[in-house]
Design goal:
By secondary structure, this protein is mainly α. The protein has helices spanning 2-16, 27-57, 63-72, 74-89, 91-96, 112-146, 153-177, 192-195; strands at 98-101, 107-111, 182-186, 202-206.
Length: 209
């Protein structure tokens, strides 16, 4: 349930904060995005829960397995699935293209290559944000638990929540600053039809969040 809730929230955030080239009247594309979103949420939630289901199904109870499956594996898997949902939800951007502009803000055309670059950058930043946010606290909490610095389960849970909040607060600006909001793409990387309509050496696009 927590996996489903998390991916529902992040997918909704992705839908609202994409590139914005797709206009409100393009109803079929919006329907497509919603269907993609539902599929991405379901798939990501199932993959995220798979390690625990596998461990309980085959009664893998060794301490090493518990450490890897319960504490270490979920974080990178969450980061990977976060990137996956971004790529799926925003797939119309690299299928249909996004607006590219010159230095004066004039729209030159729609570029699939710019859309692909924007989605890749956003997916990578999302993976780094959530992967790091949940991986570091899991590792640090493990050492706190082994050192018996937290005397009760409640105290350990509080320490873990404090670590997650602290890492998230630190990683959020890092994630947002990995790639500029107004992305750049070289002339040589663009489609021929766009090259024919401008002499600019660099064009710009809105990456989304």
């Amino acid at each position: 349930f927590l996996q489903f809730t998390f991916h529902t929230y992040t997918t909704g955030f992705t839908l609202l904060n994409g590139n914005g080239t797709i206009k409100a009247e393009e109803y079929s594309l919006q329907q497509k995005q919603i269907l993609y979103s539902l599929g991405a949420i379901s798939y990501a939630a199932c993959i995220g829960a798979l390690p625990l289901v596998f461990m309980n199904r085959y009664t893998l109870k060794s301490s090493l397995t518990q450490l890897v499956v319960r504490k270490l594996l979920p974080a990178p898997l969450l980061g990977l699935m976060s990137a996956f949902t971004v790529a799926v939800v925003r797939s119309p951007e690299f299928e249909n293209g996004i607006e590219v502009m010159d230095r004066n803000g004039k729209v030159v055309g729609l570029s699939q290559k710019a859309g692909e670059k924007a989605v890749k950058e956003t997916a990578l930043s999302r993976a780094v944000l959530f992967g790091t946010t949940f991986f570091l606290p899991a590792v640090l909490t493990h050492f706190v638990e082994r050192a018996k610095l937290a005397k009760t389960p409640h105290a350990l849970a509080s320490v873990r929540m404090l670590m997650i909040t602290s890492v998230l607060a630190g990683m959020l600006p890092v994630s947002l600053s990995m790639f500029p909001q107004c992305g750049e793409i070289k002339r040589a990387d663009l489609e021929p039809e766009i090259l024919a309509s401008t002499d600019e050496t660099e064009l710009f696009y809105n990456r989304g969040i």
